[in-house]
Structures are given as C-alpha cells and as structure tokens.
Amino acid sequence: xxxxxxxxxxxxxxxxxxxxxxxxxxxxxxxxxxxxxxxxxxxxxxxxxxxxxxxxxxxxxxxxxxxxxxxxxxxxxxxxxxxxxxxxxxxxxxxxxxxxxxxxxxxxxxxxxxxxxxxxxxxxxxxxxxxxxxxxxxxxxxxxxxxxxxxxxxxxxxxxxxxxxxxxxxxxxxxxxxxxxxxxxxxxxxxxxxxxxxxxxxxxxxxxxxxxxxxxxxxxxxxxxxxxxxxxxxxxxxxxxxxxxxxxxxxxxxxxxxxxxxxxxxxxxxxxxxxxxxxxxxxxxxxxxxxxxxxxxxxxxxxxxxxxxxxxxxxxxxxxxxxxxxxxxxxxxxxxxxxxxxxxxxxxxxxxxxxxxxxxxxxxxxxxxxxxxxxxxxxxxxxxxxxxxxxxxxxxxxxxxxxxxxxxxxxxxxxxxxxxxxxxxxxxxxxxxxxxxxxxxxxxxxxxxxxxxxxxxxxxxxxxxxxxxxxxxxxxxxxxxxxxxxxxxxxxxxxxxxxxxxxxxxxxxxxxxxxxxxxxxxxxxxxxxxxxxxxxxxxxxxxxxxxxxxxxxxxxxxxxxxxxxxxxxxxxxxxxxxxxxxxxxxxxxxxxxxxxxxxxxxxxxxxxxxxxxxxxxxxxxxxxxxxxxxxxxxxxxxxxxxxxxxxxxxxxxxxxxxxxxxxxxxxxxxxxxxxxxxxxxxxxxxxxxxxxxxxxxxxxxxxxxxxxxxxxxxxxxxxxxxxxxxxxxxxxxxxxxxxxxxxxxxxxxxxxxxxxxxxxxxxxxxxxxxxxxxxxxxxxxxxxxxxxxxxxxxxxxxxxxxxxxxxxxxxxxxxxxxxxxxxxxxxxxxxxxxxxxxxxxxxxxxxxxxxxxxxxxxxxxxxxxxxxxxxxxxxxxxxxxxxxxxxxxxxxxxxxxxxxxxxxxxxxxxxxxxxxxxxxxxxxxxxxxxxxxxxxxxxxxx
Length: 942
Prior knowledge:
14 helices
C-alpha cells in the first residue's frame, strides 16, 4: 500500500543530492506511488510557486487535467461527442479516471481554501497572504489520481497492464497578467512555464521506467521499485511504465534518444543511423537541444502521424524500406524538439510549432529524398504512370491536403485557437498551411534570411516565454522586404490566395503585365516568363492589394505564368497562365480515371461506372466529367449507361456552379441535373431539375449547425403504363424547402419544412427529428411528421402523389430505391425513413388529405432497439375519414441510418410473427452509395 503524507521532500532532495533550485522556475516536488490493483497514483506534492509577473497575487490557479475524464459532461467528454467518438460515453465509469484531492496547506501546515468552477479540470487556491512580484510561496497537497484507460487518448493504463502517464500530476497554471487555466479538450495543449521537477516514484518492482528526466537513483526495496528523478526547465513530465521494456536507446553525439518506434523492415543499426541524421539535421537548422535525452514514443506518433499513403499496410506500402520510419521519427522528434524548448502558448500560438515542423520536414525531404514521389513506387506502375499524381513530389502533399479544406470552404485562420479547430484542420490542414507559408516566405525573401531568423528565434527564446510576434521582429531585422503581410494576412485572416493575369500589353520590346489579386488582402506573387520548358525570367511582385502592372522583357517569352513552382498555396492556379501565341491559355487534356488537378491543362476525365436497379439490371457505361480530387467551382458530368436487363441506354448528367462565401451564407449553388432510368419493367422515366441552394452555417466551424434553403423545379416524363390508364405520366413540381440541421453524438436535431405545388395539387409538410443519448447510455430517437394538402385535384383512387405511411411513391425520384415499383418480394422490403416512417405495411397505406405520425425508438442493448410508431391518417372520398394506426417491433441498428434491420412485432394487424410469411414483413435499410458512406468519415473530421 502507498501512504500519502506531507513532508519536507524538497529539502531532503536538495540536501541529499546537492541540487540548487534555479531562480525564476516553479519547483515541483512529488512523491508518487502506483497502486496497480486500482490503477491509481497516490501523490504527495509540494509546489514552490514563484511570482514572475508584475502583479500581486492573492490566488493561484492549478491545472488538473487528470480530472477531465471524471464525468460524461466535462469539456473533454463533450469534445469526444462532437467528434462522434462514442467510446468515452459508453465506457465503464471506473475506466474513465478522476482526481480526488484531500487538502491544501501552506508551508506552515495551515489549511488553504480552494474551489473548482463549472469546468472541473482546473481550480484555484486562495492564498493566506498576498504574493508580491519576485517572491515565492510554498503549497503542499495530498491527492490521488485514478488513471483512465488508454482507449480514449492512448495515455493511461493499457490492457497489457502497462502505464503511459501524461497529465498525471497537478500543475500550476501560467500567469502573465491573466491566468491561462483552461480545460482539456484532447488537443494536447496544456500551457506550463518551464519548471524544476523532483520526483520520487514508487512502483511494483517488475515495472521498467522510461523518462526523459535524469534518473538520480533507482533501487528495489522488497517488491517495490523506487526511482528518484530530476529535471530543470521542463514544461511537462511524461512517464512510461512497462512490465517488458519496449524502448531502446540511441546514443548520438548530441543527446540520447529513447524510443519504442520500430519498423520490422529497418534493422537496429539503420534505425540508429536514421536517428543520428535527424538529430544533426535539427541541430543544424534550429540549434542545440538543451537536454540530455529525448523520449520519442509510438503514442505521440499515432496521435499525430504523417498523413498520406505511408499509412497504408506494409504489404502495399509504395515507399522504400526505411523511408516511412525516417518520416515518422522526423515528425515526432521535431515536435518534441520544438515543444520541449519553445515556450509558445500551445492553444493560442500553436500554429508556429506546426509551421516550423512541416517546413523542416520539407527541407529534410528535399535534402535526403529529392526524387521521392507522393505515391512512391506506384508512380512507376503502368496503370498510374500516365496520371498527374505520378508526377507529384512527396512534398506536394502539404498544399494538396490543405486545399481540400479551402476548396470546401472549411479552412480556418492559422491564429484560430487550437480548441476551436475542426479535427481535420487541427491534425492536418493548419500545420500544412503554416509550413507552406514559411516556404512561401523562403521563396520570397530567399532561404537564408528565413533560415537565420529561425535559428535566432530558437536561440534567443530557448526556454523563455515567446510569441509569433517575436519571430516577426527577428524576420524584419533580416530583410528590407515587407513581411507584415505574412503575419497580418496569411496567418490572421480566413482568406485564400488567388492571383490572375488579366491582360498583357506589348510595349516595344517589353510587356506590361496586369496582375490581379482576386482576394482583398495584399500578398506578393512570383511572375515567370516561359518558352516551352525553359524559364526566361522570374520576378517577385510586391504585395498586391488589387491590380499591379509590371513591365518585363518580351524577348523569347511565349507564355507568362504566376506561381509556376507552386511555392504559394494558391486556391486556384488554373487562371495563372497567359499565352502570348495561340488561342488557349491551357491546352485540353483527356485522362482515364479521376486525377489530381493539373493547373497547366483543361482536364477532362473518363471512367467506367457501374450501378444497379431491378428493372435495368446492372448498368455500365463511361462517365465524362471534370471533377478532380479537389472540388472546383464548376462541375459537370455525363453518364450514359447500358442496362443489361432493359437493353436500353440510361444514365444521368449534371452541371453545377458553386460560389463560396466567408459569412454566415457560406455557399450558393446553382445547377441542373437530368436522369433517365426504368421505373418498372419496360417503363422509363426522364427527370430534368434546375435548382438553387443557399447554405448557411455558423462562423465557428466546429459547430455542426447548418441551414439550407432549396428551390427546385422537378420535371418528370414517364412512359404510359398500360396497366394504369388513369396515371398522369408527365408532371412538374415546384419544391421550396427549408432545412435546419444540428447533428451531434449526444444531441441530434434536424427539421425540414417542405412546400410543393403542381398543376393538380399543393401540399406542405414538416419533419422534426431528435436523438438524445442520456448519461445512463439510454438513447431515445423521436421523429414527428405532419403533412396536409392545401388542395388536391388528383383522382381519389390514385395515391401516386399522396402522403405515404411506410413507403413513399417517390414521385420526385429523390430516393435510391432498388425496386421502386415493387409491391412484393425482397425489393419491396427496402425502407427509407420518410413521410410516415412506419415499418409495418398497414392499411390505409396512403393519405390524400392529411397525415401526422410519431416514430420513436430506444435501445434495449447496445445496437438493439425497441421501436414504436403511431399516427392519424385522413382520406377524402368514399371510405375516407380519420384512422389511427400503430406498429411496434425491434430494430437492429448496425450502423445508424446506414445499415439497419426492422422486425415488426405488434401492430393494427395483430401479432405479426404469427400472421405467416414473416420473412416478407422484415424491412431493411442498406446504403451502398460511396458518397453517402463518406459521411461516416466527414462527420468526424470536418
């Protein structure tokens, strides 16, 4: 058993080891004892807090991020829910972790008052006397940390019985005129000033300790191992306790690297050479690392990996042996190098960490892997060799992955607080954009000024509070060129970059080139004169705020190009070309299969498409389109297909223009689409739909709340059905729709107000959906639907345009029915939750006057739900009137809204399993559309 006790630990260590505390640092002494039976640390801690500010303090804030795991309602828990990560919510309470504080005292042993706020992972301690600038105050505390499972953040206790410890102690918050105490949101951005740590750690004797602190002594007493650790100027202390040591030590002539990152294709000798090369590279490009050792863990890498094709399984890895290991070690070691030495605010000024990291990674690849392609050896494969993707260098992935967000209007300024970023921007896009920005600067200023500025910034601000403004000051001293545009516009503004050559005038033996900045924030751009594959000149234009006219020589110049080497992460490079001879600025290029955008060409793609429905059978044909990996403003496609069962040409096509904005109106889309398929055996429909969509969302992109206004005119032309002489084969419906959507894991809400008008009817309907996940893991799903005809002049015997109880007729052809006209058989059992939303097939199945229904379900066990539906239906005409309907049953929700089965039990029909043909009463939802399935990914990352 571990005993918690207050003591004079700091003085014993100082006297025994002769260590002199460093002035200005907080001194943190901890006696920690691990109890494996309860996965708990019992800590006795002393903090000598030094007031480095100019203010008199009467209270001190402390970070207690171990307590962020305590409940399902902490900011950390809410962040998991926002990212659609349900593991934390459904985990057992004892696996989450928490802090239990037994008390605070001052140096004399007097009890101090302390309190938590609503956010329970930091708190304040009230001092018994004011703390003047430059003075120190000693606090002692007793507490225990119930460690969480490593399932949530990869830190905590593992299923193998090991312990990866982060945020395992209580740490003083930073005060620099205001307190920087904030909650853990799984962004690894705890803000601490460098402190001196003295730790006595007691564990069972079978555990091996890995740490980057100095191990002063280590010994075994009975069945306990006692380790005494020390570190100065440390901003964090991570400890790794293993029963079987997985870490290896690499001795370089700079410092020791301790790592558990391995690659079975790389032998230990090559791993050591790789690590030595990385250490020397960082030393040359930044400066000396001030500590004796660095721990580079697999956990750190997995939490922030090198995104790209090098994450593929080994058996299909396209990169040479050792390259992936090199990149993984480089990224993780560079992050540690920077975060352990530069005292930047990790939540407010974090972007500089990522920018320098990616910039150095690009420099490393340019130096040691100058010919490495973005898809590695796949670029030589005959099927891929023709594509533009095969030409891209490995470093081209950084602007490509950033532009994925910019083209979707989901980019965020580099200066956005880290906890306000979407997951994709936090993990990928913003660091890549920052690194590209430094490369932009390096091309504009020249590499040497930027290189010198980074080294000076590192050496001057080593282990001292710093901001990105300090780098700006140093950069200004290295060049006479303006650089404020980078910090004021590139870093701080939510704006993309887009330049265009608007016109060229011939003036004697020179050219006047008119270059327009299509965005409102001034930035510089490079202009090239080209003759075939040769560059005649390169000239940097100063920051442009609107239109700049530059005079260049015309001799031998056949084409003018902006940003030819793509050193600027430009939103649209397709308008950067101006030919001085010929008609087209960019030639047309035909490609088989979708490719990465090549701005040098007007690209047109072909690829085969395969689809299926019951009446056409399998359909196959070519798809002609212009969409690249990244979205564009104008998309078009044409998909003629041959149906092997209908033996007819079917297919669809569309033309879409999207204009994106930075305000609450973030997208305006105009388009027209058309399709032609079978709707029954031997019967075809043709649909033509012009439409417009206005999309709104909040300025905070982490919020999922969106609103849409949709206006369309659906024109349908159907073959006459000889079995239904009363049908109306051709019709046109104007549809106005308002959609409000706010989907989240804990609270899901969506509403739709829909108005339709046609020649013979007008109708309005409303749909409300609500999903709630309770703290006891009970989930409640509610859906309300109501619709009424404003007028209905259709035949009383024809329910084609009527409201449906369980299976809409889909006269607008919106739904992906595999057999839309089926009344019996497997395809008739496909259900799409729309209109009435019932699962049993009841009578009346339609309403030609009005309908109102409620659908509800709740979980019985994990993905097994009980459901019930109730409603009222009113029909006009003979046998009309109002009828009440209901059904109940069991729902298997394998993937909610994507793959589900419904088993009816009791309804207006009675006990349905006893009615016969029960297998034909089971309903199913199956989603096969790749675009729809992609939503499972984008809802978490975007």
